Request: fold
Amino acid sequence: MPYHGESSPFGYAMGIVAAVAFAVVLYKVVTSGAVSAELQGIVKRALDAGM
Reply:
């Protein structure tokens, strides 16, 4: 099958699977206890600094 410069449906599907996998990993990291506590600390410090 010659290449015509177009992505195949399989290529699109693999891109979607990779994007979803990346999103899941990123979600797990952001919602982990250590990262969540650090983000809350940053927000608290930012809010306290303005007062």
About this structure: The helical segments are 9-30, 33-50. Residues 9-30 form the longest helix (22 residues). The CA atoms of residues 28 and 35 lie 10 Å apart. The chain has a mean pLDDT of 84.
